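We modelled the chain as a single entity of 389 amino acids. Its sequence is:
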Amino acid sequence: MLREPFVLLAALAAIVALVFRLERLPALEPIFRRLPSIFWVYMLPMVATSVGLLPDESPLYGVLTRHLLPASLVLILLSSDLRMILRLGPRALGAMLAAVVGVGVGAIVAFLLLGRLLGPEAWKGLAALVGTWTGGSANLLAVATSLGLSPDAQGIAIVVDTIVGYGWMGILIALSARQAALDRRLRADRREVGEIGRRIADRLERDRRPTTTADATLLVGVALVVAAGGMAIGRALPPVGDVLTPYAWGILTVTTLGLLLSLTPLAKYDGAGASSLGYAGFYLLLAAVGAQADLKKVVAQPLWIVAGVIILAVHAIVLLSALRLMRAPSFFLGAASQASTGGYSSAPVVAEIYQPGLAPVGLLLAVVGNVVGTYLGLAVGQLLAYLSR
């Protein structure tokens, strides 16, 4: 068993690197299309622990949670150019607002229906699902660690995210062939869709450039300083209820500081790989979480799949109702829903399927979800904690 912390870190990094290398192989593309990289980054360390290769306890895991997550969040949030997001227009932002509100309401409905059957960590697990289905995997991890969700329960959330989330993505793709009929039912006006795509595509392309040593050192320095400062502020703030612990305050502070930095010239460094560097740290932390989980506990929770279906069913009802009210085209059903439930990696793909050339709209809507995911996840967690008493 690999217990020495540096050797353990190397093993986790090797697993993450192997997953992303295999993802690029054409022969394995069908597998990764159905079970994405986040699934394998979590599951492989969990299997390695189950067979005795990795320990389920190590000082390394706590160090990564306390320090790597906030630094990675700073780098990821640098790409949240709020000015460019506002250029999406009221219908696009209205659709995204409806999408994330639908997820939050769906989690509350699922808790009221199944909370007692899901176990003592039900409210924490559902809050983590709100984080991932309004923003993405980084938000799931931020909410889960802030609430003290166990590694086993985090694994259940990731499995639900994969099975239910990608099942919903398949439904959205199938509905793309019915856009004309959907638009008639929604009484939609499609004129602004193409204009939105043209407004943002040039900006995204203009900021892209190779990463230099100066870029990398600046990004690492900024991430560590902001993370250290934000977590120190969190430790100084008083706990509030079951959710706003000093660690949760720190994560919220780091998130807010990262968003503020996205309004400065540092936002341009996302074109030099800021978010890629942030996600590298995030996936390393996710592998560490997987190594602490018990495979048997993760796979023996079928009711959580039902809870996930309830959340996304309510999400769909709220989003479709909002689109009809705004007379927005069904393009925003695909783009906003997948941006919310799938995040950066899949939202541009679904947006492109619905309307060729509009992948950037899906990307920008995913940024919106990434911005609000941690806040909404913790807010819903606070409400569910109250309901669980």
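As a brief sanity check on the tokenised model: The chain has one domain: 88-274+296-387. Residues 88-274+296-387 form one domain.
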